[in-house]
Structures are given as C-alpha cells and as structure tokens.
C-alpha cells in the first residue's frame, strides 16, 4: 500500500460528483503527490480511467474492496 | 492537460432535462475543456436565480413510475391535476437519496469552473423574461455569439 498525501471520501456520491470532487482536491495538491479516493458509484471505475487519460493525472491503482471502489491518483506535472 | 473545447445548446426547462447539460459541462470543465453553454427557449429556465423546475410524467412513457403507478394511472392518469407536483417531489427525493447532485449544485460547480454561460436575447424578448431574474454570471447574446464559440470547438451538443 502506497502512502497517500490526501484522501477523498466520495462514498454515496453519484456521477459526476466523485470526479468533480477529485479534481477540486487535486487542484490543491502538488505534482507527484498521491490522492486516494474511495467511492461507491460503480460508474466511477471507468470514469476515473477516462479522467486520468484526459487530464494527465496518473491512475496508479483501481480496485474493489467490500463493494467500495478505491482509486489512487498521482497528480501530473 | 487538454486544450479542447465544448459547447452545449440547452433548450429544455424541466428538472430531468436540466441534468445532461450541467453534468456534461461541469465534468468537461474538470477535464480541462473550455466550455460554453447557450441557453435558449425553455432552457432559460435553468438560468433563473430561483430555480423551480418540475418533471412531468405526461406524454413521457419512458419515465419509470414508483410503486407500479403506471399500472394504476395509464396515460390519461398522468394528466390528473397534482400529478406533476407529486412526481416532481418524488423525483427530488430520489435524486437526494441516490447521492445525485441538485441542479443548483451542478450549476454552481459550472460557474466555479468558469463555464461560460450565454442566455438567448431573442428568447428573453419573445417571452418577456426579466434578465434580473437570471443569475448574474451570464452574458446575453444570439446565434452569432454562439457560433463564434462553436466554430472552433471540438464538441458541439444540442440538448
């Protein structure tokens, strides 16, 4: 498990809020820092992949644990 | 970061149809797109300071009705007085309980993300709308103003 710089609880939020909250949190972070996101919206799995591809923030990991979705994003430069 | 842009023409003024333009715009803005929204005809309802949007089951066979209501209220039943208010209330409760943002919340997120919003001047004149009833963050303009943005845009949607 990597160390994270910030964590975002997006549980219970539906599209597009997890993405919007993640973007807002990333705005306050520095390049290379890690953001962990926990969400319950199944659509967020594909959406975070697409978010990463289009914004240059790297999706380091994406996994499901006990019905929750965990993402690790590395802020791009 | 992307340097793409998107424009959306929002033409509908109901609670359900308020979602696609605001969801796409706020998300595109989060992805780095330059976003312009043009609100025309009933879409101008989405710019009111005081949002009072409704959803109607009338003439909408695709709308899922709670508690198998569609069995008891076929087509004509959806025209019963009070049905629209009831469905709007139910829809708002469902939206809240499913963790879906409110229209006002999504609109605020768009404003915060510098989504450009243009209200259609012609519609304002046509329906005698008072620009003072609309939020302050918008510009007024016409078809040429919209096309000025759409001409160089990667994605242009009509909703």
Give a quick precis of the structure.
Chain A is α+β, with helices and mostly antiparallel strands. Chain A is 30% helix and 34% strand. Chain A has helices spanning 17-27, 44-55, and strands spanning 6-10, 34-39, 58-65, 68-74.
The second-level CATH architecture of the largest domain in chain B is: 3-Layer(aba) Sandwich
CATH architecture call of chain A:
2-Layer Sandwich
The CATH class of the largest domain in chain B, by name, is Alpha Beta
Give the full name of the CATH homologous superfamily of the largest domain in chain B: DsrEFH-like
How many beta-strand runs of chain B? 5
Given the structure, what is the number of helices of chain B? 6
Provide the structure class of chain A: alpha+beta
What proportion of the residues of chain A is helical, as a percent range?
25-40%
Strand content of chain B: 15-25%
pLDDT averaged residue by residue of chain A? 94
What is the oligomeric state here? heterodimer
> Average pLDDT across residues of chain B?
92
Largest sheet of chain A: 4 strands, mixed
Helix and strand succession of chain A?
Answer: EHEHEE
Number of helices of chain A: 2
Ends apart, CA distance between termini of chain B: 27 Å
Please give the CATH class of chain A. Answer: Alpha Beta
CATH homology superfamily of chain A: TusA-like domain
Largest interface: A-B, 16 and 13 residues
């Amino acid at each position: 498990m990597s160390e994270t710089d910030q964590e975002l609880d997006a549980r219970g939020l539906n599209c597009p809020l997890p993405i919007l909250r993640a973007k807002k949190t990333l705005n306050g972070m520095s390049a290379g820092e890690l953001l962990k996101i926990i969400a319950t919206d199944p659509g967020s799995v594909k959406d975070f992949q697409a978010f990463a591809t289009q914004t240059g923030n790297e999706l380091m990991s994406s996994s499901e644990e006990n019905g929750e979705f965990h993402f690790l994003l590395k802020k791009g430069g | 970061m992307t340097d793409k842009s998107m424009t959306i023409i929002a033409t509908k003024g109901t609670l359900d149809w308020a979602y696609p333009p605001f969801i796409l715009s706020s998300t595109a803005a989060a992805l780095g797109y330059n976003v312009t929204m043009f609100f025309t005809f009933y879409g101008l309802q989405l710019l009111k300071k005081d949002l009072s949007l409704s959803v109607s089951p009338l003439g909408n066979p695709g709308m899922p009705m709670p508690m198998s209501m569609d069995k008891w209220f076929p087509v004509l039943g959806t025209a019963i007085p009070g049905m629209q208010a009831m469905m709007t209330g139910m829809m708002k409760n469902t939206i809240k309980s499913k963790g879906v943002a409110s229209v006002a919340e999504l609109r605020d997120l768009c404003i915060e993300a510098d989504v450009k919003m243009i209200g259609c001047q012609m519609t304002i004149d046509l329906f005698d709308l008072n620009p003072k009833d609309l939020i302050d963050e918008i510009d007024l303009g016409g078809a040429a103003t919209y096309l000025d943005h759409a001409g160089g845009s990667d994605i242009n949607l009509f909703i």
